[in-house]
């Protein structure tokens, strides 16, 4: 890599500092070494090994089925690919709900086996004790409030959270609980932009929005949505910055045609009998 500027690793303290300095924080999901290398080279600050891997890597139709044994290998691959970005892994559904002791066991397993810098888990007030236990063990935690996909059925589907006076008050209480519990940052998912901006103004820790408007301290998207790799419908809050799926489809089709026609491989793409000719 031909980088001119030195690339100091992004540490946890970067996020509150960036917030205080008014510098936007950039985050994307990543699930493998190649995407991690590319996004790291692009200067993305935080790479999340999201449990959205359930959908975009494993093909489940929600995040509920994905397991630690399925996410840990992906997190290992991403940490191998990232030299600057801060790598964070989602704790999967079922791996922390039983309480602080189960949650700490899970977080310790991710730290021991993957090389991530921090873990993320869903829930505000309901997860505060769990966050506190993990943080007290020296493991940085990122919160995730608003629409929490692991609670899809409890929330009644993909529903915007934080609407109305009660919704806004609950979101603020969740945000403060996550901060008070010691989290270094918090994801705000699918909440009205005005409410997300109010939460962002109130908190000292950084807010990272997804479907939460421009008033957050940073933004995160699922990379396969943002760069046009996902199949089918994508959430309305996503902007497609590229169409990688179309590019790959074209490439695969051209390859197929060239193999079928005998055009690939040519002589340069083949070996002769003469050694080191
Ligand atoms: N590919 C992918 N992208 C994501 O953003 C994502 C995942 N997977 N998996 C985990 C969660 C689930 N998320 C989702 C899933 C669906 C909607 C959705 O359908 N949203 C609708 C609005 C709600 C509705 O009317 O149904 C939208 O149009 O944005 C939003 C977030 C966000 N996360
Ligand atoms: C969308 C982000 C915040 C996430 O939790 C995930 O990708 O799993
Ligand atoms: Mg997630």
TrEMBL record:
This is 3-methyl-2-oxobutanoate hydroxymethyltransferase. It holds the Pfam family Pantoate_transf. PANTHER family: 3-METHYL-2-OXOBUTANOATE HYDROXYMETHYLTRANSFERASE (PTHR20881:SF0). The lineage of its organism: Bacteria, Bacillati, Actinomycetota, Actinomycetes, Micrococcales. Belongs to the PanB family. Signal peptide: none annotated. It is an enzyme of class 2 (transferase). 3-methyl-2-oxobutanoate binds at residues 51-52, 90, 120. Its main location: cytoplasm. Transmembrane segments: none annotated. It comes from Pseudoclavibacter endophyticus. It comes from the Bacteria. Mg(2+) binds at residues 51, 90, 122. Its cofactor is Mg(2+). It is found in: Cytoplasm. GO terms for cellular component: cytoplasm.
């Amino acid at each position: 890599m031909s980088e001119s500027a030195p690339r100091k690793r992004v540490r946890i303290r970067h996020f509150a500092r960036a917030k205080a300095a008014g510098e936007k924080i950039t985050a994307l999901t990543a699930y493998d070494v190649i995407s991690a290398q590319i996004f790291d080279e692009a200067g993305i600050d935080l790479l999340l090994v999201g449990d959205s891997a359930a959908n975009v890597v494993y093909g489940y139709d929600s995040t509920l089925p994905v397991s630690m044994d399925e996410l840990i290998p992906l997190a290992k691959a991403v940490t191998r690919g990232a030299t600057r970005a801060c790598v964070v892994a989602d704790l999967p559904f079922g791996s922390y709900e039983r309480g602080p002791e189960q949650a700490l066991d899970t977080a310790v397993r991710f730290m021991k086996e993957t090389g991530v810098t921090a873990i993320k888990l869903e829930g505000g007030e309901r997860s505060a004790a769990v966050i506190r236990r993990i943080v007290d063990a020296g493991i940085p935690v990122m919160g995730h409030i608003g629409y929490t996909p692991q609670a899809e059925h409890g929330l009644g589907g993909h529903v915007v959270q934080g609407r109305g006076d009660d919704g806004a008050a609950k979101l603020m209480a969740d945000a403060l609980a996550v901060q008070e519990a010691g989290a270094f940052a918090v994801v705000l998912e699918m909440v009205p932009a005005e409410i997300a901006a109010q939460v962002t103004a109130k908190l000292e820790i950084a807010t990272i929005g997804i479907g939460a408007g421009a008033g957050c301290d940073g933004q995160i998207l699922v990379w396969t949505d943002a760069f046009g790799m996902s199949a089918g419908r994508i959430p309305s809050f996503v902007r497609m910055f590229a169409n990688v799926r179309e590019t790959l489809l074209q490439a695969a089709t051209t390859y197929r045609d060239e193999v079928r026609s005998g055009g690939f491989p040519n002589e340069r793409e083949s070996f002769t009998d003469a050694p080191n000719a």
